[in-house]
Amino acid sequence: MTGHHIAGEQPAPPNSQHEKPVEIWTGLPKSRISRPILILLTALLTAIPSANAQNAPDVNTMPLDQLAQAIAHTIEVSTARSPGAPLSYAGVTVQGTKVTTHFAVKDSAILSKLKASADQMREGMASHICRNPQSATPLRRGISMINLYELADNSDKFEITIDAAACDSLAAIKPASAAELSQLASQVVNALRSDGEKAQQNQNGVTLKQAEAKDGIVEQRFVVVVPAFESFYRANVPQTQAMIKGNVCGKFGDSVRRGLRLHLVYEQAQTGATLSEFNIGPSDC
Questions:
Q1: What is the pTM assigned to this prediction?
Q2: Strand partners, 145
Q3: What is the C-alpha to C-alpha distance for residues 181 and 39, in angstroms, rounded to an integer?
Q4: CATH 3.10.150.10 assigned to 31-168
Q5: CA–CA separation, 97 vs 66, rounded Å?
Q6: Which of 15, 47, 130, 134 has a CB 3.0–4.6 Å from the CB of 167, allowing a cystine?
Q7: Per-residue DSSP letters for 132-168?
């Protein structure tokens, strides 16, 4: 693996005291886009401090080498490794303004399939990343996000690059009419209810309490039923909201960019107290 490794961020050995990346079910359907897209999108959304945060660096003036390191650090500490999986995260490296996320591919057959869908993957990544103003800003400034897919024996590999040029190549999104928004909202609600039923069967820590479509807006209410998840939500509200927005943009991004809006509420199981409440709209995706 070439490039500059992020110092101090090697995967923790078994039974170490380092915390593993937290993976929780947000109550939303898992995206059909590939995991690599969601990794990059979430990193770009969470690596940059909120403009409202006290003493937060300005993403428009932050030195590009520092920006690249911040993005890479976020990818490394928030992405779980799954050795032996068909496609697994294998680390991140930085060379100047290029952030390369490495993926280990189990066998040549899988790599061939990835190569065959490279153009579709590139377009999907660009669409989900570039159309969100926040995640697009680093790219517009000169950061390049590269996904490198490589066989374990290094005998074959290929990469996909998302940068400002990839963003510029995207076609414009046509806003949806009122009737189309109503139809899109109903489709999202159906997906939410279907996934909510599966989640309850699998005893996930977040359950769907309500999902309704009204005037082109999807109203959702979730109940956090596992104490550990509740503690995570309370301690990481901005990060959790960014993660959920990344999930929504990954799953429903095209609909949201056409004008669909979502209102989400997460509440505590025993008291019904609100843990988190926020909206997702076109500017978020």
A1: 0.58
A2: 99, 162
A3: 28
A4: no
A5: 9
A6: 130
A7: SHHHHHHHHHT-EEEEEEEETTSS-EEEEEESHHHHH
Give me the DSSP letters along the chain: --SEEPTT-PPPPTT-SSPPPP----SSPPPSS-HHHHHHHHHHHHSSPPTTSTTPPPTTTS-HHHHHHHHHHHHHHH----TTSSEEEEEEEEETTEEEEEEEES-HHHHHHHHHTHHHHHHHHHHHHHTSHHHHHHHHHT-EEEEEEEETTSS-EEEEEESHHHHHTSPPPPPPPHHHHHHHHHHHHHHHHHHHHHHHHTT-SEEEEEEEEETTEEEEEEEE-SHHHHHHHHHTHHHHHHHHHHHHHHHHHHHHHTT-EEEEEEEETTT--EEEEEEE-GGG-
Strand order in the sheet with 87-95: 4-5, 87-95, 98-105, 144-151, 157-162
Q: How many residues does the chain have?
A: 285
CB 38 within 8 A of CB 46: no
Q: Are 88 and 104 in contact (CB under 8 A)?
A: yes
- Sorted by sequence, the CB contacts under 8 Å of residue 190 that are 6+ apart come out as none
Q: Tell me the per-residue pLDDT of 42-89, one tens digit each, with 9 for 90 and over.
A: 566 555 544 334 455 567 888 999 999 988 888 888 777 888 888 888
For the stretch 166-221, pLDDT in tens is 999 888 888 999 999 999 999 999 988 887 666 554 446 788 889 999 988 999 99
So where are the chain's domains?
Answer: 31-168, 178-284
Structure tokens at 40: 């990059």
β-strands 217-224, 261-268 pairing: parallel
CATH code for the domain defined by 178-284:
3.30.300.250
Judge whether 31-168 and 178-284 match in fold. Answer: yes
Q: What is the largest CA-CA distance in the chain?
A: 57
Which tokens go with 42? 């979430």
